[in-house]
Amino acid sequence: MAQLGSVFVIAGFFSSYPVRVALVAGLMVAVVSGTVGTFTIIRGQSFAGHSLADIGAAGGSAAYLVNIPAIYGFIGINLVAGLVLEFIGIGRLRGRDLATGIVLSAALGLTALFLYLDTIASTTTNVTASLLFGSILTIQGSSIPIILAVGAIAIAIVMVLYRPLVLSSISKELALAKGIPETKIAIGFLVALALNVSLTAITVGAILSTALLVGPAAIALKLTRRTGRAILIASAIGVIVTWIGIYLSYDSYYWPPHNHGWPASFFVVAIIFALFVTVDTIVRMRRKYLVGKRPAKG
Amino acid sequence: MFSAFMLNAWEISSIVAVVSGVVGFFVVQRANAFAAHALPNGAFAGAAAASYLGVSAVIGLSVFSLAGALAIAGLSRRTRSDVATALVMVLMLSLGSLFLSFSSGYAQQIYSLLFGEVFGISRSEILPTFVVSLFCLIAVLFLYRQLIYTSVVPEAAQAKGVKLAFVDLMFLLILALTTTMAVPVIGTVLIFTLLISPAAAARSFTSKVPVAIMISVSLALITVWVSIALSYWTNYPVGFFVGACGAAIYASGRIYRSIQSKNLNFGEANSLHAL
Fold first, then answer.
1. Domain boundaries, chain B
2. Which residues of A touch B101 (CB under 8 A)?
3. ipTM score for this prediction
4. Tell me: domain B4-274, CATH 1.10.3470.10, correct?
5. pTM surpassing 0.90?
6. Which residues lie below 8 Å from residue B236, measured CB to CB, with a gap of 6+?
């Protein structure tokens, strides 16, 4: 009986329209985040990657105020924020953390203002919650083309810049010596990051945006040192984890405490975190084992 | 503007500003801005959990922020600290979204946790805030030398037998306590700004650590006082003014420094800025 039950759940799963939209959107979001995320980690810009999701909310709440689609608000403010980050000095190792913090705190102030104006304008306070927690299962089918377009542009930028980007991410000195235009590459990447985070923050919310940007890529970089391979692994992990999250979220409508459905973001993050710790532990134990064996080999 | 309920707002925001001015100096000095954002943000999940379980929000906040500090410190040994911070933060936030989905209708509460409700402070909240603040300041005083030493010359500190990981952990715990104290009163957004902007600006004005801390505290106090006054007069949210003041004082610090470095030769660039 239990098996029969689960067959019904799966059949219902794929015939549900929100689920199909979520699966397509999740695929795109995970692939873009895996690609851009790998470079984000190598370049040490995880904080910036997360901040852009919060900064985007300032643009989103402003867009809400003037009645244009929130995605344009997100993209607009994130492109500006990316340039300001580069200007203040995200490139320097010591200044990176601070530059991001300053831009983030200024943007959070703006968010406070715009959300306040939003609530005056429309008396609804739900805009705060949806901007922060946006749910993958409430994406409109009509926004799929925009998701695909913005995601494709972000991937295209990374592909075009690929070789110099790899070099400048791994060694700035080497890139300089080879005559690679550092600043242009850095700005190009920040544009890709801004587009990626705008897209993911608005479709799956700030939490999943950061989780998918940092998590799968961090796991992939534990498994391989090659950038190209890491991108493929990160994207694959991202897609699988997102789909499992969507399935569990769908299934959890039958779960306690309220038969209300648990958020997909919770499942995705929990799996990513567990996977990261597991992979890290295994890689560590293997390394120890290999180091232990070496003396025997001579 | 100085009626009874406003007096509470003035007092509590001044206490928070003093602590964040001091702790913030070390946040900036030790490049811990991401943790200063992640802990208050993640602790917010603790408040959501507390409200679902029906316990006091302060318990939820303190449990989550202290656990978050421990997790960030622990995971930082295994991977880059920004990746560790990001992973721990999203884990805490996703737990928050889970608990929020169990409860319902918390939109207003989300807003007040994020942006605080400094005008809604009751008399009884002042004493606990004051005690925790005092504890944070004493802890910083105790760790003062190690905190400076490990952030300026980590290798030398390690060679002298200072345990970097231990000092990191202790500082994250202080940050977690500051968070617990500040989030219910001024919200996650304001505490972050108060930790970052005044301290960042202060470092532009001087290279002497005690003087920089003093300037940082003064700027934090000016920021909250100006913001509360403006918010009282205009009715716009305090968070907006704190963000704007923070950006303005940071910008003035940068301008001051660039004028200074034009006047002096580059050789005189002092130790803090060189970092």
1. 4-274
2. 260-263, 266
3. 0.86
4. yes
5. no
6. A113, A116, B230
